[in-house]
Design goal:
heterodimer, A: mainly alpha, MetI-like fold, two-stranded antiparallel sheet, 4 strands, globular, B: alpha/beta, Rossmann fold, 2 domains, 6-stranded mixed beta sheet, 10 strands, ABC transmembrane type-1 domain-containing protein (chain A), MetI-like_sf (chain A), transport (chain A), transmembrane (chain A), membrane (chain A)
């Protein structure tokens, strides 16, 4: 029953998309919202099924796997199945509801994680914005001058090969010496800067590709209109870049979160999820389920960051018409 | 034709040639060419691939620069004419911006030149009316057929009321039926606007149906072989060119004349011979 229904909805959809405007293929119209709703529901269900599947595999392996894990030669290729190494899924979930410490005033674990995640999200967002400005700026320069592309692009690629862990403390120590008038460099700014360092890369590459994407015919059309550089940029290049920029921004958002978490760890910044990740891992021998909380938090954080950009894509839907058509 | 001598030509091409530098050496795309297009005149450029007809049009549009010679558009340099928006242009691909509606696409040149939004809206309505797309103002290009897209492109080219329209095989990608319909439309539109048209094509009937004069070109290097004046409906009031014309004897005679010019002047086939081309 479900299948025939969705098949019909699908046919209605294709009829709607090929029908000419003002045509009599009216029935395609009304089915549209229903189909979209159905598809969204299916997406969520599949996502949920994936999570359940992972939990099942975890529990089945924990039940059937050898206590000492699977060892080939000297290498352990699968983990131990003890409660210490692999807590039960329900234990991990239940732990989220319990207080962080035994102290009477302690907040529940989930609240601590959410607060820490929000703090990290804020820093990552600043890093993402800086990455956006720097990335698009570099792309503009590279698009405008061919020679800048040749000169800059290799360095931009090279920049990403520098290990983050190596220069995070350097950034922090440089930052602590920055003091301009009333402005004083804060530790979180170092973390944001490092996040932006990871975020700008996909944005620069995506924006460059996007800015270069207009067809020759469109560029000549703008020339025939005697449109200058800025007019061409605003009316043609930026709109044409949107389909390239959106995935780049999403990658950038995920990178910014990873960068922020890693930078929190390596600069020792308090308050973020990176910090409690380390802290709780240290307590894992006594409280194994607790260490998994921040890991879930970091995963959700990445999803929220990438999802926010997806929202941007919905708003800019009209600029993605060619993308949807193909 | 009895135009006043004072009227300046729409296009004046003098001794223009064009050499493209490629890795394997220089390619002479055009050898020195002279051509004048009067104001309000419809001139087609026809010839096989590589004869430089598109190149010639691009030189007039100032999309390329001639290696030698001068191109004047309404007495100005082609560059000045481009900056002053003396011409509108349409290509083989409609080249609409996919993120803009039909109205938005037609509005583009007006927006770029700072036309006030009220004046813009009425001009757009007028243009869409002219190309018969008044009901489609809010559609997006991907919702239109090829013919409709090309109409939008023509409306866009006419937005600034240019006195010269440059068209590079605008109907080349359309099917035959749509194509004939669009030709009739173009005849009507060019009569309504009184604009001169330089029309690049490689369809002989298309050139004959549309033009006052057909410029026949030949390749390697590109040059003008012959200019064939059309004599359809005597001193052709352009608006009088209708579908019936396509079936008239004089139409076929002109097709033959252009074909013979294309094939090097030697009579071919069994069409009427000895047609005067001037």
């Amino acid at each position: 029953m479900r299948e025939t229904e969705s098949a019909r909805a699908g046919r209605g959809a294709s009829a709607a998309s090929v029908s000419r405007p003002g045509s009599r293929y009216g029935p395609g119209g009304p089915t549209r919202p229903a189909r979209r709703g159905g598809r969204r529901l299916a997406t969520w269900l599949w996502g949920l099924a994936g999570i359940v599947a992972i939990a099942l595999i975890w529990e089945v392996y924990k039940l059937l796997g050898p206590a000492d894990g699977v060892v080939i030669g000297d290498a352990r290729v699968l983990p131990r199945t003890t409660d210490l190494a692999m807590p039960h899924v329900w234990d991990m979930i239940a732990r989220l509801g319990e207080p962080v410490t035994r102290s009477a005033s302690a907040q529940p674990l989930w609240l601590v994680i959410v607060l820490a995640a929000l703090s990290t999200l804020g820093i990552a967002a600043v890093g993402w914005l800086v990455g956006l400005v720097v990335g698009v700026g570099l792309a503009l320069v590279m698009q405008r001058w061919r020679i800048a592309e040749w000169g800059l692009l290799p360095w931009i690629v090279l920049s990403q090969t520098v290990p983050l862990i190596a220069f995070a403390p350097v950034v922090k120590s440089w930052g602590s010496r920055v003091e301009i008038g009333a402005f004083e460099w804060q530790d979180w700014m170092s973390v944001a800067l490092i996040a932006s360092y990871l975020a700008f890369f996909p944005i620069a590459i995506g924006a460059l590709k996007g800015l270069q994407s207009p067809d020759v015919i469109h560029e000549e059309l703008m020339r025939s209109y005697a449109a200058g550089y800025w007019q061409t940029l605003v009316k043609l290049r930026f709109p044409a870049a949107v389909p390239y920029l959106l995935p780049a921004l999403r990658l950038g958002a995920a990178n910014a979160v990873v960068g922020a978490v890693v930078a929190e760890v390596s600069t020792g910044l308090q308050g973020g999820i990176g910090r409690i990740l380390i802290q709780f891992a240290g307590q894992a021998s006594g409280d194994p389920a607790k260490a998994w909380g921040p890991i879930f938090g970091a995963v959700v954080l990445g999803l929220v960051a990438a999802g926010s950009v997806a929202l941007l894509g919905v708003i800019l839907g009209n600029y993605r018409r060619t993308e949807e058509a193909s | 034709m009895s135009e006043p001598v004072t009227q300046v030509a729409a296009v004046e091409v003098r001794g223009v040639d064009k050499v493209f530098e490629t890795r394997s050496g220089n390619v002479q795309a055009l050898e020195p060419i002279d051509l004048t297009v009067a104001a309000g005149e419809f001139v087609s450029l026809i010839g096989p691939s590589g004869c430089g007809k598109s190149t010639l049009m691009r030189l007039v549009a100032d999309l390329d620069e001639p290696t030698a010679g001068t191109v004047e558009v309404f007495g100005k340099t082609s560059r000045r004419a481009r900056l002053d928006q003396e011409y509108g242009i349409a290509f083989q691909q409609a080249g609409l911006l996919p993120w803009r509606t039909v109205a938005g696409n037609v509005a583009l040149p007006l927006e770029l030149h700072g036309e006030a939004s009220a004046a813009r809206a009425s001009r757009i309505a007028e243009l869409l009316d002219m190309v018969g797309l008044a009901d489609f103002a809010d559609r997006y290009p991907d919702q239109l057929s090829g013919g409709m897209q090309q109409r939008v492109a023509i409306a866009r080219a006419l937005a600034e009321r240019p006195r010269l329209l440059l068209m590079d095989e605008p109907f080349g990608a359309l099917d035959e039926m749509t194509r004939e319909k669009m030709q009739t439309e173009l005849v009507r539109i060019s009569a309504e606007t009184g604009a001169a048209v330089v029309f690049v094509t490689h369809s002989i009937p298309e050139a004959v149906f549309l033009s006052d004069r057909v410029v026949v070109m030949s390749p390697r290097p590109g040059r003008i072989r012959e200019i064939v004046a059309m004599r359809l409906g005597a001193e052709a009031e352009r608006a009088e060119r209708t579908e019936e014309l396509r079936e008239e004897r004089v139409f076929f005679d002109m097709v033959t004349a252009v074909r013979e010019a294309l094939h090097g002047g030697s009579p071919i086939g069994t069409g009427a011979r000895g047609v005067e081309t001037r």
